Amino acid sequence: MNFENGRTRRLARVLAWCLCGLIVSAPAQAARKHRHPKKRPHMLRMAMSKPKPVPASPVDPEVLLLYIYKTLRIGRLADAEAQANALVAAYPNFALGQMLRGDLLLMHHDPVNSLAGMNSTLSNVATAAGTKDLRDEAAKRLAALTERPNPDLLPRSILNLANDQKFALLVDASRSRMYLYKNTDSRLELVKDFYISQGKLGVKKEREGDKKTPLGVYHVVTRIEPKNLSDFYGSGALPISYPNDWDRLQGRTGHGIWLHGTPSDTFSRAPRSSDGCVVMTNRDMSQLVDTVDVNNTPVIISDREEFITKEKWAAERTRALMLVEQWRQDAEIMPLQRLRSRYAKAFKSADGESADDWLKKTQATLSGPGKVQIGVSELEAFDYPGQSNLVAISFLQTLTSGKTKQTVRRRQYWTVEDNQWRIVSESIIERPRT
């Protein structure tokens, strides 16, 4: 379809900007913004080139959204309408798709000044509050699609994974996005990313019922099949280990934080709509449930993830590994006072013990009848989200002394005290990585 006048072209341009969460008051402003995009060194902006045809099958809803956005940007309203129809046909309960299709139809008749404007056909689908939620969802989804993590950068939070940990999940609350990373020979590879919903009141959970999603490092502790769930949780659930030791030391309360799907009549939820869980579409949740290993998949929830150069990431990873190596060497030669210097004055064990009491209590895990040799393996290390200068490390410790051999798993939290990295909390983990 050819554009018959500038009015239709202007409407397409306005809708395209609205899809990105932007309200443009004049075409000239839109043109200036398009010519001089803001630089974002930590992300990679996709070029707005001529869109490629969308494969007929399988239909990826986000691929269709991006295609519609890009075709509108170059003035191809008919193509955008066709793909909006395909989106609604494939996912009839996708409210954002229904809203988009309605606004495209309105372009033939009335001005559209915002996504689902006052005269939008979406008025029969959602309330005013629901319309705002859909605009927020559109902005989050399209920002994630048009600005991808630069493949030359790595997430700062994930410093090291054990060799047997195949995957890690990284939630970036600011982007309403979950990133699935694959671990290959200590190299991180971004495999896929998903739109997610978080707590109604955002992140940094502190107490039971505060409608917030926790920030921290957790692990998937079990898998719950749909047949054992109510319809509300959709295609499956992956409970995580909130609260962890650090949360309990900070006095944080609450429980039952899950990754889960949506009710069968709901395709997706607003960016902030849960009671604290991380919610995904049933389509995405099914993929995730089939991918992750229970008790062996870390889940890092960050308020705003920083993507850093490989050189900087390698330096921070090396620092974390060296902290454990220095601790291991001191533990082997074991005058207790030397090992004690690795522990902070503010140290508290998971049970609230001081460093002196903790070392006395756990001395048996560091001593034996003869010369002591300590080995460290299965090490995972994370720059802890939401708090500066805090590194969470856990590892399998093997102690050999004479004919005695014992194995325990330690979790340590390192922080800076008096300009030195020291252990501020430590625990012996009975079960692996929970």
UniProtKB/TrEMBL annotation:
Keyword Methyltransferase: no
GO biological process: cell wall organization; peptidoglycan biosynthetic process; regulation of cell shape
Catalytic center residues: H260 (proton donor/acceptor), C277 (nucleophile)
Biological pathway: Cell wall biogenesis; peptidoglycan biosynthesis
Source superkingdom: Bacteria
PROSITE patterns listed in its UniProt record: LD_TPASE
InterPro entries: Cds6_C, LD_TPept_cat_dom, Transpep_catalytic_dom
Residues in the signal sequence: 1-30
Keywords of the record: Cell shape, Cell wall biogenesis/degradation, Peptidoglycan synthesis, Signal, Transferase
L,D-TPase catalytic domain ranges (all copies): 167-302
GO molecular function: carboxypeptidase activity; transferase activity
Family matches, as Pfam families: Cds6_C, YkuD
Keyword Signal: yes
Family: Belongs to the YkuD family.
Record protein name field: L,D-transpeptidase family protein
Organism: Noviherbaspirillum pedocola
